[in-house]
Specification:
- This protein has 395 residues and is an alpha/beta fold.
- It folds into 2 domains: 198 residues, Response regulator (Rossmann fold), CATH 3.40.50.2300; 140 residues, Response regulator (Rossmann fold, 3-Layer(aba) Sandwich), CATH 3.40.50.
- The radius of gyration is 25 Å and the shape is globular.
- The protein starts with a helix and ends in a 9-residue tail after the last strand.
Length: 395
């Protein structure tokens, strides 16, 4: 009888354990099903620290704003977007780890984010390997495009092709090129030099500094020695701020040798200060001063939502309309397989803060305006040139 009681007790314990495990499994499965029913998971991968945080913080904010607006309007076919946020601290290796987690563990249907070309190129193998989707919202050099990436910002045909002839015509022919030493500046400058020569200009120098560089006295001395009419700058990230400050500090004025940048936006101008930034130029598809109802509404909503000393930039606007393009693509299909979702983007048109934009049907890039603006004495931009029509993204 003792033996029988022991066996009965063991059987009872085993039965309870089995029931418990079955219950856990059932709850977990039910939770996953509920999650799918309640919303659509998307990854958001931006940096709040590191050398690109000055650009990525506004992008993160704009992404949050767009998601909140879309959900408040009813979501996607009644389902809310469920963002899963990850911070990769401007580190490409960490970005790879984070996007792998987002895809495999969090089961996101797409990821909004990354910023530098180094971070984008680092995550693409994981995106492609797992048939996922990346919505990339930063201007870039237009090389090595991925079939799994939607590009919502400019390439050189949209940012530089009309910039170089304008520089030659309005400022001068002798151009010195400077940039941060990584993929985007190096490859963009290579294309810009060819465009300059085609426009009748002359290259008088080319210099690069390490990413995150903060001491520019040596570079500025080289600029003085070269005596260019203009400095074409692809110095990027947080380095933009000390470059402009020291440019003025070491005795070069914007009136004497203006900087024409492809990486200096409203957030960096805010860091530089109006005194050192005024008189220099930038080329982007979007500036805050664009006079459209959509832009005014976007800026007002952004400033109301975020009191964190950030400001709207072309990158933030690219992230904002990137989310809206993703939402429209998700509405077109109920199959969120990577290839199917990418196909849903093709030919999409939306009214964004900068105006009507569309996704090219063949290369996953967005048709955008080309604009050039001068920084005024109060630190705001004044648009001095706009393309007549949307410019095709040529790779």
């Amino acid at each position: 009888m003792k033996l029988s009681k022991k066996w009965l007790a063991l059987c009872f314990v085993f039965a309870m354990a089995t029931l418990s495990l079955t219950g856990c499994s059932s709850n977990s499965k039910g939770s996953d099903t509920a999650s799918k029913e309640e919303g659509i998971k998307i990854g958001v991968l931006y940096s709040t620290t590191g050398p690109f945080s000055i650009s990525e913080k506004p992008m993160l904010n704009a992404t949050k704003l767009a998601i909140e607006e879309i959900n408040a309007a009813g979501g996607i076919k009644g389902k809310k977007l469920i963002p899963v946020y990850e911070d990769y601290a401007s580190d490409p290796a960490k970005a790879t780890e984070k996007i792998k987690k987002l895809i495999l563990q969090d089961k996101v249907v797409a990821t909004i984010g990354t910023n530098s070309s180094a971070s984008r190129l680092a995550v693409i193998p994981e995106v492609e390997r797992n048939n996922s989707v990346l919505v990339y919202n930063t201007y870039y050099e237009g090389e090595k495009p991925s079939p799994n990436v939607i590009y919502t910002n400019t390439v050189p045909s949209q940012q530089i092709a009309e910039y170089m002839p304008w520089i030659v015509k309005n400022i001068g022919k002798r151009v010195m090129f400077v940039g941060s030493d990584y993929v985007f500046p190096v490859n963009s400058i290579k294309k810009a030099k060819a465009m300059l020569i085609q426009a009748g200009g002359e290259v008088v120098g080319e210099e690069y500094v390490p990413l995150g560089h903060t001491e520019f006295s040596s570079l500025i001395n080289k600029i003085k020695q070269a005596k260019p009419d203009v400095v074409f700058s692809a110095i990027a990230g947080d380095s933009v701020v000390p470059f402009y400050k020291q440019y003025q500090q070491y005795g070069i004025s914007a009136k004497e040798i203006p900087i024409c940048s492809i990486a200096t936006h409203e957030a960096t101008v805010k860091g530089i200060g109006a005194a050192a930034a005024a008189g220099h130029y930038s080329s982007f598809d979007y500036f805050q001063v664009i006079d459209t109802p959509e832009s005014k509404k976007f800026i007002e909503a952004y400033n109301k939502a975020f009191n964190d000393n950030t400001t709207v930039t072309n990158l933030a606007e690219g992230a904002y309309h990137g989310v809206y393009l993703l939402a429209k693509a998700l509405e077109k299909t109920s199959d969120y397989d990577g290839k199917t979702l990418i196909n849903a983007f093709k030919g999409l048109e939306i009214d964004s803060p900068q105006g009507k934009i569309k996704v090219d049907e063949s290369n996953n890039h967005t048709w955008l305006q080309s604009r050039i603006a001068r920084i005024k004495e109060d630190g705001t931009f004044e648009i001095v040139y706009s393309s007549k029509d949307l410019v095709k993204p040529e790779l």
